[in-house]
Amino acid sequence: MERNHYEEHYVARTGWLRAAVLGANDGIVSTASLIVGVAAASGRAEVLVAGMAGLVAGALSMAAGEYVSVSSQADTEKADTERERAEIEADPEEELRALAGIYEDRGLSPELALQVATALHAKDPLAAHLRDELGFSEHTEAKPLVAAGASAASFAVGAALPMATAALVPETAISLWVTVLSLLFLAALGAVGARAGGAPILRAVLRVTFWGAVAMAVTALVGHLFGAVV
């Protein structure tokens, strides 16, 4: 029988969604906070220079951080894969019993668990152990370049929003406009990220806007107190 059934689950998006949402959120919050802090002590020219420097440095930093972090995860997954492969080659019968035990713990009878484990071992024992013993799957596989690219690009897009606001609004009201519009951008980001990940939208919106507001308020306060770029 030909099987064409296919379902797309939210977990398939975790490889890029987390990095993209984190990057965009950091881009908006860090750049808006920087602009608000600088605007509290300087004019538009200084604000735009500082904002552009923050955009470039932040995007590169996010990309590097994601790449290093996810590469470490990928290295760990590769090491565990090789270890599991060696264990299967050294003692396939013991690994078969271990896999059957996993299925028993999940509710199958001993006979059925052994039957399932035997069938999976006959086809691809390594894949079965990676999936059911270690919890690896193609949906959650570490992809350093994907994470780095998504993080850098989304950070740049997020940072460009408060930058554009600072460039277009009256100079005397940069802090106010950047704060208000950045909170709206964050709310929209929270809603989009929650919808893409199947999470409650209101909770995500409240979370990102609250912490964004805190970050901008603290930076503005420091800018007022010290009268300098921080």
Question: Can you walk through the features of this model?
Answer:
The protein is built from eight helices and no strands. The protein has helices at 14-39, 44-90, 92-105, 110-123, 125-132, 144-168, 174-197, 201-226. It starts with 13 loop residues before the first helix and ends with a helix. By secondary structure, the chain is mostly helical. The longest helix has 47 residues, at 44-90. Helix content is 80%, strand content 0%. It has one domain. Helix 3 (92-105) packs parallel to helix 5. Mean pLDDT is 80; it is low at 1-13.
Total helices: the number is 8
Domain count, please report it. Answer: 1
Regions with little confidence, pLDDT below 50 for 5+ residues: 1-13
How many beta strands in the DSSP annotation? 0
Q: In angstroms, what is the radius of gyration?
A: 24 Å
Mean pLDDT: 80
| Proportion of strand residues | under 5%
Describe the global form: elongated
Fraction of residues in helix: over 70%
What series of H and E elements makes up the topology?
Answer: HHHHHHHH
Give the N-terminus to C-terminus distance in angstroms.
66 Å
Sheet with the most strands?
Answer: none
SSE class: mainly alpha
Give the helices and strands, then pairings:
Elements: H1 14-39, H2 44-90, H3 92-105, H4 110-123, H5 125-132, H6 144-168, H7 174-197, H8 201-226
Helix pairs in contact: 1-2, 1-6, 1-7, 1-8, 2-3, 2-5, 2-6, 3-4, 3-5, 6-7, 7-8
